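OP here, attaching both records as promised.
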Amino acid sequence: MYDSVTKFLIETYSADYASWLLGRPITMTKLKPSELSLEPIRADSIIFLESEDIILHIESQT
C-alpha cells in the first residue's frame, strides 16, 4: 500500500520532490515511467533534470 502511494506522490510531484531534496528550485523535469533494460538495474520511474552538474537518485522502499 505505501509503495503505491509513494510512487504516486513522486510521479505526480516530481519537480517538488527534486526541489525539496536539492534545496533549490528545479525548472524542468521529465519523468520516464519505465524499467531500465540492463540487469540487475531496475527502476519504477526515472526523473531527468535539466542540469549539467547534478544527478538525483530517489530510492523508495516500503
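Record two, same layout:
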Amino acid sequence: MLRRCWCCERGETVKGLIDFVKAFDYRDLIKGAAVTLRHFFKRNVTVQYPKAKLTPFPRFRGRLTLLKDEAGEDKCICCMACVRACPTGVISITAGKKEGRKMRFPEEYNFNMDRCIFCGMCVEACNFDAILLNEEYELAQYSRQDFKFHKEKMYLPTPKVDYKK
C-alpha cells in the first residue's frame, strides 16, 4: 500500500488556499466596509430605552385625553360623535346638565384602553376639540383594570409604573 507524502498533501492544501485567495473578489469586501463606514457616522436608529426617552413624531397617537377650556370647564358637550366614530366601541359617555350652563357635560366618560386601536377616528369626529391622543407611549400596566379610564383619570397624566418589581 502506497502512502502519500505529507509534504505533498500540505503542498496541495497550500496550493488550494492560494487559488482561493486569487479567486476572492476584494471589491465585495470593500463595498461592505464602505456601507459599515457610512452608517458609522450617522445618527443612531435605536434608543437605549429606559435611560433615554424617545421623542414621538408629531403625528404620533398615544393615550386618549379629555381637554378643558380656559375657564376650567369640559370642552366636551356630549354630542356622542366620538362614541359613534369609534370602530371598537371603547368610549361610553353619560350626559348631564348643570345649572347656569347651556351645554351638556359628561357626567361619566369611560374609556377602555385595552381594546383601543389608537386609530384617531374619535379625535377626528370631535368638532369641539374636546379629546386628544397625546404623546404618552409608556402605557404598560400590571392589571387589566388599570386600562379602564374614567373621567377624572383622563385629565391627569398616567402614573408611571415601576418595572423593577
